[in-house]
Design goal:
With about 350 residues, this protein is an alpha/beta fold. Helix content is about 35%, strand content about 10%. It contains 11 helices and 9 strands. Strand 8, helix 10 and strand 9 form a beta-alpha-beta unit. Helix 2 packs antiparallel against helix 4, helix 6 packs antiparallel against helix 7 and helix 7 runs parallel beside helix 8. The two termini are about 40 Å apart.
């Protein structure tokens, strides 16, 4: 059924720039601000159609120095506006800059349908990491999903649990896209529908089993250990234990400083945050809230700012994986060969 959604997306974006993630870095904050200004001057002379390739170039030929600036970009004008605001306003620059901490790890929390208020949709706009392909895989298995774009609109009748099934598909596709980008979570936690999606992403449940037994949470097979630690309400115990490749445990993995939370902060998400804080440093929480496709770009940008390395080739289609000319780094004496002219 998703085949009826994808052409509409393509038609809606015809003539528009393909999206990307714009990244810059510098050895210090002042160098970063000067670099943003120099690149903005250069980008103002470029064509909208080059946006994705320009973003890819910024990802590939610019060194990942300690101070990192990263923003999702779905239009050249919007990117320029954000960059100019960061140059003018220190608070904006702070919000879009990270420290690039080494060896960072994160956990992924997937909520159930009850955590989503009416009127809070998850969309399926164009996104990196093969998001739409994974969504198509899941929706074909579940035989949904005509209402994916306005899933939580109160005008959509929830016949046969279509909202829950479609939320599962979106969460599954989001997780698969993160893996494709090499942004692999150190653990997954899920409640309700999110528990089934998390179980599939860790290998503790197959997609076929999830769709066949979706009415009522599918019980996990104790013989299928998850590839990474999993906190799931579907483990059959009701105790909220962590299932790991080495057997169950009662505490989350250690040394995980970040938490990516899909949707609002319900009781389950707060419980995971509290568990992390009790066994390690305070969790930094990144939220994917409204449009899973567009928010995935923002999530990739946020994780890059925090020090995660991204498999950028998976974030762009083949036609956009080309290098374009960019201005030299403002603090550097010489530029990369691709920075001294256009291709």
């Amino acid at each position: 059924m998703l085949s009826r959604v994808q052409p509409a997306l393509a038609a809606g974006r015809r003539g528009a720039a393909a999206p990307g993630v714009w990244t810059l870095s510098a050895p210090d904050r002042d160098g970063l601000r000067r670099n943003i200004r120099a690149q903005a001057v250069h980008l103002a002379r470029r064509d909208e159609a080059d946006l994705a390739a320009l973003c890819y170039t910024s990802n590939k030929i610019k060194a990942s120095l300690p101070h990192r600036f990263a923003v999702p970009a779905d239009s050249l004008g919007g990117l320029l506006e954000t960059m100019r605001a960061a140059v003018r306003d220190p608070a904006t620059l702070d919000a879009l800059t990270g420290g690039g901490h080494p060896r960072v790890r994160y956990g992924l929390v997937l909520p159930g349908i009850d955590a989503w208020p009416t009127g809070a949709p998850i969309g399926v706009s164009e996104a990196p990491g093969g998001f739409l392909d994974y969504l198509n895989e899941a929706t074909t298995e579940f035989r949904v999903v005509e209402d994916c774009l306005d899933l939580y609109d109160d005008r959509v009748e929830d016949a046969g649990g279509v909202r829950g099934a479609a939320l599962f598909c979106v969460e599954y596709a989001l997780g698969r896209a993160l893996y494709a980008l090499d942004l692999n979570p150190a653990f997954l936690a899920g409640n309700g529908v999110g528990a089934a999606a998390a179980a599939c992403l860790t290998g503790a449940l197959t997609l076929n089993d999830a769709s066949a037994r979706f009415v009522g949470l599918p019980r996990l097979d104790p013989e299928r250990a998850p590839r990474v630690p999993l906190l799931s309400a579907a483990d059959g115990t009701g105790t909220g234990r962590w299932l790991t490749p080495d057997g169950p445990r009662t505490a989350p993995p250690e040394d995980v400083g970040h938490l990516v939370r899909v949707g609002p902060s319900g009781r389950f998400a707060r419980r995971v945050e509290d568990a992390m804080r009790a066994h390690g440093p305070p969790a930094r929480v990144v939220t994917v809230a409204a449009d899973a496709g567009r928010d995935l770009l923002a999530l990739v940008a946020a994780l890059f700012r925090e020090g995660f390395e991204v498999k950028w080739e998976a974030a762009y289609s083949r036609e956009h994986r080309t290098l374009r000319g960019l201005a030299p780094y403002a603090f550097a004496r010489t530029g990369h060969p691709h920075e001294r002219g256009t291709t």
